[in-house]
Task: structure prediction
Amino acid sequence: MEIKLQEISIRDLVKGYKDSAEEGVVAYGGKLDIRPKYQREFIYKEAQRNAVIDTVRKGFPLNVMYWVIKDDGTYEVLDGQQRTISICQYVVGDFSVNEEYFHTFPEKAEEVLNYKLTVYFCKGTDYEKLEWFKTINIAGVKLTDQELRNAVYTGEWLTDAKRHFSKNGCAAKSLSDKYVKVDVNRQELLELALKWIGEKNGKSIEQYMADHQLDTNASELWIYFQSVINWVQTIFTTYRREMKGLPWGIIYNAYKDVPLDTKKLNEEIDRLMADEDVTKKSGIYQYVLDRKESHLQIRDFTQTDIRTAYEKQKGVCPSCGIHFKITEMEADHITPWSKGGKTIRENCQMLCVNCNRKKSNI
Result:
């Protein structure tokens, strides 16, 4: 990684400043891409933004910024996007600080324009940039893992992927809002879709993005994501709030080609939702597919139930016939929960740890 330190005046920085919304933000005579299409949206709060300007107006040093030197000789903000946009917006009069706009006092405005920013110019491979980005992204408003990836795997594919997955009101958010728990503006929905499709293909998110970086569109990802949500809606016909936030892509990958009796599945879900022994209702959707009771967190026997069963058995494990301390035994359903047994005192027995483990594995 080649790194060179320079000082850039705010006067030079704001030349050619232009905010084209979806098309990005540029400055420094049009040579600096402040907010590439793949980057996050401006997220500084008013107090943070004003603190940047207050620091500049008092002549105090701002934290160092990092620009990447691109192959065509232009630059891209690697770190310092929020500070840079705050400065540019202030100079063009988008906001005031303490009710003072940039042009209110010309002498102060001149001092601002002459202020020197400390900038490291960096050049290196995609891997080096990502590792460097992670290293410098320690203080301030931290980037998410996906924002870090977006800073490296740029191109038409990523631009198209963000169009589908990266803003409130985007198509993927509208389609899946009832089923996912994510912050779209922080790239979490895009990350989730990439995680799901990566799992399907046996690839990490980074590998999938690298493989498709030069594609002209993200149609494969978008079509896949729609298939996941459509499958969920088709298989689980009654929507419940417990469905929000489940790993639907992982479930879809495993069961999309498995013949399922939708009517029976939904009847069982209705029954399990009403079962007081099931303490984790959201786990029902995975349980009806893989039959793993761990998803359900079946209600435990009470300490009174456990003590009563132990005394009744006189500390003897009914399976191996050996006496144990109560701390060496575990409560077990006599009639398994899966066969209709309830978590009640009459259905409780104490087994030694070994016997209970053996029974669980049958």
In short: Residues 157-234 form one domain. Residues 19 and 137 are 24 Å apart (CA to CA). The longest strand covers residues 2-9.
